[in-house]
């Protein structure tokens, strides 16, 4: 089997750059002929200017076209999403690539398919084009599948997939997360791109309530993005400078240390998530978790085995944090369950699942 992978650029932010390279390497170890080429660039702290985005899309599409013309691939695997920008990018790219006999598989890292149930003629035409050209779609959640089906995609093209998570490969044997007394200082962790829908501001406001209740804690906000200034202003307004710390964007190795050394992961997102890598990293290293019940969290995690589900309201977030701090038995059980779940996400296990999917697509 010979596969051309459309990969995220090495300087990308977000889950795909953390999960896709080790997954592809695991496929190689299983004897699959894998060629990697950059397809996804993504925004960082600021959106990419429109003309630069267009230039990159066209240059990338013609680069893929050259590779596909020079070699015979069984499958073209693209990492993508389904929002307005990726609908435009993918339809133009696939048209220009002309992948010949290669089947097309698209792994969806989050989608906004529900927004296009009613749209204009041009976008509807492009969605119909993609639905015919794509031979298989890897999706994370049932909600996403239902939204795609409403747009006219065929049900037999969908396959449920998970992301590879490598963070727990470095865990010591028989690792267990320490349990603190409720009067000790707890290290809380928020990791994400700082955009409005990820829940950073709500987490900071929850910290004000924790402080008022006498909890001892430090919240580490790991990442960067467009609302960082607003978040720092909120910390100052609420007089939380001693309790809330910002790291800025830091290398993946340093992020990993925060996952190992923190006590509790907070992720009250309302973003259109797929399979958020930061959430499942926290799962994989046995962290107790407070998160919202949406998309992959709703489909893969259970309460109270893996997490406590909160709303996006600061009062509810704070309540769930206190519940974990005060309940040692719940803390210990959740940590143990999450460590076991994390083993399923090792790259070799994910690679085997994908191999079975590829074979089904190629034999259609």
Report on this model:
This protein has 364 residues and is α/β, with parallel strands linked by helices. It folds into 2 domains: 2-164 and 346-362, Rossmann fold; 167-343, 3-Layer(aba) Sandwich (Rossmann fold), CATH 3.40.50.2000. 45% of the residues lie in helices and 18% in strands. It has helices at 15-29, 50-70, 84-97, 121-133, 142-150, 200-212, 228-237, 252-261, 277-284, 295-300, 314-326, 328-343, 347-362; strands spanning 2-8, 33-40, 75-82, 103-111, 136-139, 158-160, 186-191, 217-222, 244-248, 264-267, 289-292, 308-310. The strands form 2 sheets. The chain has a 6-stranded parallel sheet, with helices on both faces. A 6-stranded parallel sheet has the order 9-8-7-10-11-12, sandwiched between helices. Helix 9 links the parallel strand 10 and strand 11. Helix 3 (84-97) packs across helix 4 (121-133), helix 6 crosses helix 11 and helix 9 crosses helix 12 (328-343). The model has no long low-confidence stretch (mean pLDDT 94).
Name the descriptors:
Rossmann fold, 2 domains, six-stranded parallel β-sheet, single chain, 364 residues, alpha/beta
Percentage of residues in strands: 15-25%
Low-confidence stretches: none
Q: Tell me roughly what share of residues is in helical segments.
A: 40-55%
CATH topology label of the largest domain: Rossmann fold
Strand order of the largest sheet: 2-1-3-4-5-6
| CATH architectural designation of the largest domain | 3-Layer(aba) Sandwich
Mean pLDDT: 94
| N→C terminal distance | 15 Å
Shape: globular
- In CATH, what is the homologous superfamily of the largest domain? Glycogen Phosphorylase B
